[in-house]
Write a structure and sequence with these properties.
With 322 residues, the chain is an alpha+beta fold. The chain contains 8 helices and 14 strands. The chain is elongated.
Length: 322
């Protein structure tokens, strides 16, 4: 009976949140406070650690900290900063404190009028922010260095959580996809989907490869040489020729996981490489926010060709020596 009452109460709470109406603020900003944790709200000079998703009113996902696995640090700017206006991006975060969560609709017409910049084409009327505040760093009397020392300590702990969760992410990916990979001494795991009949490359050979790379944790594709895959995953880049890439193997032109994995494959093979971060982008990620720190990766690889180095022309060499 207790379980039934609890389930009913939870369902009512969720339904009530979904039905809650947006309130209107200044500058066309609309907001819905999903949870008010009763803590002090952010002020100028404070910093917030938040998890958020940003979508357009066309239901396009523009940003998600959940995909990266790390929160975003938001600096609360003073009103005196040129270009700020009531109802802007900064205004949203000043309505929140630690433990709060809310949904905001940022009015693009107001933003264009106030900033004197063209209205962005990524949405029609609103950009929608779904925000959860994890931690509130209060400036108060702290020096900037003391404040940012607190943030750095906090962020280091968040990165350690990513590091600790890496093996679990790989194990879950393998289990959920019912894979039976082979594993090398370095920690690389691989599945030969289709074994080629050609020779294996050796260090110094040039290989020609089609590939698709994704994050193990989310399955999100971050890069591919295959146009159809790019289109399917919303990653199409008109500047990309979408053709096999060529590079020398075994000479550190690519991440270690590729160097090791491709040397295991005969020409013509198709394989899946599951690459731990130590063989990928390591503790720093790719630096662009696409591949986070300690992110295991999965690549679908097709080894199309192996090109041997061209031997020096002995005739030309003899002539030069003379």
């Amino acid at each position: 009976m207790k379980k039934s009452i609890f389930s009913l109460g939870l369902a009512i709470a969720i339904f009530g949140s979904a039905c809650q109406q947006f309130q209107k603020g200044e500058g066309g900003l609309q907001y819905k406070i999903v949870k008010d944790n009763g803590q002090p709200k952010a002020q100028a000079g404070d910093l917030l650690s938040v998890h958020l998703t940003v979508t357009s009113d066309r239901d396009s996902l523009l940003q998600s900290t959940y995909k990266i696995g790390l929160p975003q640090i938001v600096n609360i700017a003073p009103d005196s900063i040129q270009g700020l206006y009531p109802g802007d991006y900064n205004s949203m975060f000043r309505m929140l404190g630690e433990g709060d969560s809310a949904v905001f609709k940022l009015d693009l017409d107001t933003m264009a009028a106030k900033t004197m910049r063209p209205k962005p084409e990524i949405a029609d009327k609103y950009i929608i922010f779904n925000i959860k505040v994890n931690k509130h760093f209060k400036k108060g009397d702290l020096t900037d260095s003391a404040l940012y020392a607190e943030v750095n300590t906090y962020f280091d702990a968040e990165i350690e959580k990513l590091k600790a969760s890496e093996e679990g992410k790989i194990a879950s990916y393998i289990k959920e996809n019912k894979l039976e990979p082979l594993k090398t001494a370095s920690g690389l795991q691989y599945i030969i989907v289709e074994e080629g009949t050609g020779e294996k490359p050796v260090a110094g050979d040039t290989v020609q490869v089609h590939y698709t790379g994704a994050l193990v944790a989310t399955g999100d594709v971050f890069d591919t040489s295959v146009k159809e895959v790019a289109e399917k995953n919303g990653k199409l880049n008109p500047m990309n020729p979408y053709e096999p890439v060529k590079f020398a193997i075994g000479v550190r032109q690519v991440i270690p996981g590729w160097d090791e994995g491709l040397l295991l494959l005969p020409k013509g093979s198709k394989a899946k490489l599951i690459i731990p971060s130590k063989l990928g982008y390591g503790e720093n990620g790719d630096g662009r926010g696409v591949i986070p720190p300690f992110a295991p990766l999965v690549f679908d690889i097709e080894l199309i060709d192996v090109i041997k180095p061209v031997a020096p022309d002995s005739t030309t060499q003899d002539s030069t020596e003379k």
